[in-house]
């Protein structure tokens, strides 16, 4: 069963490189990013884990916990972690789930048999503090993900959770935003007393409210 936006992120217990954990308890009040890898000791995955380790302070700043997964066991992850530190210049600084029984992979539908019937694809799930799924992404094994894009999406998710706005194409933190289409002009006057620019009645633009 696919995990969809707005669903409660399925809870699970798992062994990780940082010990046994229960996903929802581990998340606590934080946002979370759960992302899967096809296999240990593979090139693209090695660069991805190094990249996330390097970006960890950016996730921390946004109150986001990151956790990786592959269907290889923990002792394999431990060996691979040495290679990641050696080749990527940053040590693994977040837990990596050893999902050798594919319990979590199955729960999150991370194995797509028509792509590969044993390995996980590159899935991403962003989970809010309410444990609801806010974003899902699926990449093939051959394409490494853009983790700056995940940070950009998190900025948008956190902003739009707080204000009745939406973010336009290619938006980055600090740029103008759009008033949500469900907000009437009368409501917008209350919410955004400094005003906005109406380009079309359905396209109302204003500076990012928390800047
Ligand atoms: C990689 O990470 O490079 C990779 C993993 C599994 C299949 C293909 C590529």
Poorly predicted runs of 5 or more residues: none
Spatial sequence of strands, sheet with the most strands: 5-4-3-6-7
Secondary structure class reads: alpha+beta
Beta-sheet strand percentage?
15-25%
Mean pLDDT: 97
Report the helical percentage: 25-40%
Identify the quaternary structure here.
single chain
Can you list the ligands bound to this structure?
benzoic acid
- Major sheet summary line: 5 strands, mixed
What's the total helix number? Answer: 6
How many β-strand runs?
Answer: 11
Instruction: Please tell me what the overall shape is.
Output: elongated
Order of helical and strand elements: EEHEHEHEHEEHEEHEE
**What's the N-to-C terminus distance?**
40 Å
Radius of gyration: 19 Å
Describe the structure.
The protein has a 5-stranded mixed β-sheet with strand order 5-4-3-6-7. Strands 8-9-11-10 form a 4-stranded antiparallel β-sheet, with helices on one face. The mean pLDDT is 97. Helices cover 32% and strands 24% of the residues. It is elongated, with a radius of gyration of 19 Å. By secondary structure, it is an alpha+beta fold. Helix 2 crosses helix 3. The chain contains 6 helices and 11 strands. Benzoic acid binds next to helix 2.
Could you outline the blueprint of secondary structure elements for this entry?
Blueprint lengths: L12 E4 L2 E4 H5 L3 E6 L6 H19 L2 E7 L3 H15 L7 E3 L4 H5 L14 E6 L5 E7 L7 H16 L2 E2 L10 E3 L5 H7 L5 E4 L2 E4 L5
Parallel strand pairs: 3-4, 4-5
Antiparallel strand pairs: 1-2, 3-6, 6-7, 8-9, 9-11, 10-11
Helix pairs in contact: 2-3
């Amino acid at each position: 069963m696919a995990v969809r936006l707005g669903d409660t992120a399925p809870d699970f217990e798992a062994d990780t490189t940082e010990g046994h954990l229960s996903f929802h308890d581990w998340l606590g009040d934080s946002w979370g990013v759960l992302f899967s890898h096809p296999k240990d000791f593979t090139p693209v995955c090695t660069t991805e884990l190094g990249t996330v380790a390097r970006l960890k302070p950016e996730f921390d700043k946004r109150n986001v916990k990151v956790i990786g997964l592959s269907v290889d066991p923990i002792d394999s992850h431990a060996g691979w972690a040495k290679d990641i530190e050696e080749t990527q210049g940053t040590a693994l600084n977040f837990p990596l789930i050893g999902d050798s029984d594919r319990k979590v992979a199955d729960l999150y539908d991370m194995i797509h048999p028509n792509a590969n019937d044993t390995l996980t694809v590159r899935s991403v799930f962003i989970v809010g503090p309410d444990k609801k799924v806010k974003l899902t992404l699926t990449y093939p094994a051959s394409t490494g993900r853009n983790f700056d894009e995940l940070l950009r999406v998190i900025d948008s998710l956190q902003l739009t959770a707080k204000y009745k706005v939406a973010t336009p194409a290619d938006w980055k933190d600090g740029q103008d935003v759009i008033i949500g289409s469900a907000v009437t002009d009368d409501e917008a006057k209350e919410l955004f007393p400094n005003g906005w620019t109406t380009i079309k009645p359905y396209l109302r633009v204003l500076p990012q409210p928390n800047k």
